[in-house]
Each structure stands twice: as C-alpha cells, then as structure tokens.
Amino acid sequence: MDVLIDNVWHAYEDLPVLHGVSLDIQSAEIVCILGSSGCGKSTLLRLIAGLEVPSAGHISTRGTPSPRTLHPIAFVFQDFALVPWRSVARNVELPLEHHALPKPDRRQRVSSALYRVKLSEFAQTYPNQLSGGMRQRTGLARALVVNPAVLLLDEPFSAVDLGTRELLQREFLRLWEEARFTAIYVTHDVFEATQMAHRVVILSRRPARVQKIIEIDLPHADRSEEHPRLVAMRETIRETIRGEIDAAGQELVDAP
C-alpha cells in the first residue's frame, strides 16, 4: 500500500511543526526519516497513523490491503507501550479485541505473530520478566498480528543496547522480507537508516520541510559497514543534519 503525503502543514497552537511536507512512499518500501531532535519526525508519524489531523494538507493511502488485514496501518512505539498486567500473548491479542473474530482465528493470529518474532516460548510471560529486546519484539508482534499493509515505527530500537539493536534490525528485515509491508521508520541513528532503508528522508529544523532525499539501491545483503557508497551517504546525511542544527543555533543567537 502506498502512502501519499501532500503538502502537509501542522502546528500546536502557535508552534509550527511541519511546513508543507510532501512525500510519496511506495508499497513495500522502507523509508527512514531523520532530522534534528524536535523537528517533527514523530508528529509526522502520528499524522500518518491518524492519531492527529493535519492543520492543512492531506494524507492518504493507495492500494488494496490483503483480505487478512484488520488494520491497514499499525504503530510500533519507542517505549514498548505494553500493558504490564497482561501476558505477552494477551498484549499481542489486544488489537484483535475490537474485531468479532472467532476464537480459533484469534488464537492462530497471536500464535503466528509470536512465532514470527521468535517469542512462542514466552507467550505466558509478563513484560517485567522480559529483556528490553524481548519487550520490543512483543511490540512488533502486536503490530504484526493485524497483518498491516503499512507499519509505522518511532525509534523502535533506541531503548535497547547496541548488540540487541543490531539483532532486532536483522529480525525486522527478515519480517519485512516475509510480508513486504510498507515501513516508515523514524530514527536518529544514521547507520541504522543506511542499513535498512530504500530511501532516507531528511527533515529540516522545525518547522520541518523535506530537506533531502537519499536513495539507497543496494540490496540489504550487500550493505557491509564499510561499503564506500554507504560511508559516503552517511557523511552526507550527517553534514545535512549538522547544517540544520547549526542554522537553528544561529537563529537563536540572532533572535532579538
């Protein structure tokens, strides 16, 4: 399913956040969104998810999801957002409770989602008994249980250690290879973006515009850490973001 963002503006009262953002995100594409802290990346995700309504402009989708899709768009949060008194299986089941599904179908969906993220053995475990990586896998399973056509991820692996993050990145790419959903992925990690994305979208300082789009046409299997093209792309991304941070700082200095 495609996601079409057409000249979107957004503000919180007198604080402008997004300034005419337009993007066409293609079906089965992984797009990573980067930018300086507070520039509006998470706000853009919330608008795509329908959690907020743009002040101006339009966000729409194009295409028909699978018949097994219960929610076309699903969200994976940075802070896991698990219900502590529900087991792993019952956390994953949560989005299904708004649908009149037969119990066998509901159990099958939960079982399949847990199997896909390698948590089948922990179905009856509670969140406080899990590692950070396992809690985030639970969040992924909860999103996948509805078979979304579009998956939104807001810095999903930032709360775990480096080794776990790299493992989760590989697991995410495996899940994407299986299901080929559209993914829109907010991150601060330049290396993560160049390892995972088909396109990297860099937002300017707030109010955010699309500052630069970098296409990465290398297969994921060929993206070694020291690949010359990826090294060059990372430096371009860092320079662009650094320039926006410096410009924002200069605006503060020049302010009356």
Radius of gyration from CA coordinates: 19 Å
Structural class: alpha/beta
Oligomer: single chain
Q: Termini, distance in Å?
A: 47 Å
Helix percentage: 25-40%
- Strand line-up across the major sheet: 5-6-7-3-8-9
Low-confidence stretches: none
Total E-strand runs: 9
CATH topology of the domain at 1-63 and 150-155 and 182-223: Rossmann fold
Q: What is the percentage of strand-forming residues?
A: 15-25%
Structure at a glance:
By secondary structure, this protein is of the alpha/beta class.
Question: How would you characterize the overall build of this protein?
Answer:
The protein is an alpha/beta fold. 37% of the residues lie in helices and 23% in strands. The protein has helices spanning 41-49, 88-93, 103-116, 132-144, 162-179, 190-196, 228-254; strands at residues 2-12, 15-25, 30-34, 56-62, 73-76, 150-154, 182-186, 199-203, 210-215. It has a six-stranded mixed beta sheet, with helices on both faces. A three-stranded antiparallel beta sheet has the order 2-1-4, with helices on one face. α3 packs across α4 (132-144). It is globular, with a radius of gyration of 19 Å.
